[in-house]
Amino acid sequence: MQEIINWIQSKNPDLDGEIAGDTDLIESRLIASVSFLEFIALLEEISGRNIDVSSLSVADFRTIDRINENFLAPVA
Fold first, then answer.
1. What is the domain extent for residue 35?
2. How far is CA 20 from CA 12, 27, 53, 56, in A?
3. Are residues 63 and 22 in contact, defined by beta-carbon separation less than 8 angstroms?
4. 28: DSSP letter
5. Which of 8, 48, 60, 64 has its CA 20 to 30 Å from the CA of residue 31?
6. Could you give the CA distance from residue 44 to residue 71 in angstroms, rounded to a whole number?
7. What confidence category does residue 69 fall into, taking pLDDT thresholds of 50, 70 and 90?
């Protein structure tokens, strides 16, 4: 998760404080649409899995906790 937080912080250099697991990344504009595909590529690299963008929802990326559940948790 730290890689994701580091990436978000690098895209938001004026960000003060920490990013909590339940911070709404979309509402707070910490993940901008212009860098979204770059973010997907990061998730694919970290998870080692391809992400089908046609099946995604904004809700899948709303919080760090949700990203962890959807993309980084072990596949059962």
1. 2-7+20-72
2. 15, 14, 25, 22
3. yes
4. T
5. 48
6. 8
7. very high
Q: Is residue 67 part of a domain?
A: yes
The letter for the amino acid at 34 is V
Does residue 14 fall inside a structural domain? no
- Name the region of 38 (left: φ>0; alpha: ψ -120 to 50; beta: rest): alpha
Taking only the tens place, the pLDDT of each residue in 42-59 is 999 999 999 998 999 989
* Helix locations, the chain, DSSP H: 2-11, 36-47, 64-67
- Residue 13 within any structural domain of the chain: no
Q: Is residue 15 part of a domain?
A: no
Could you give the CA distance from residue 25 to residue 59 in angstroms, rounded to a whole number? 10
- Residue 34 scores a pLDDT above 90: no
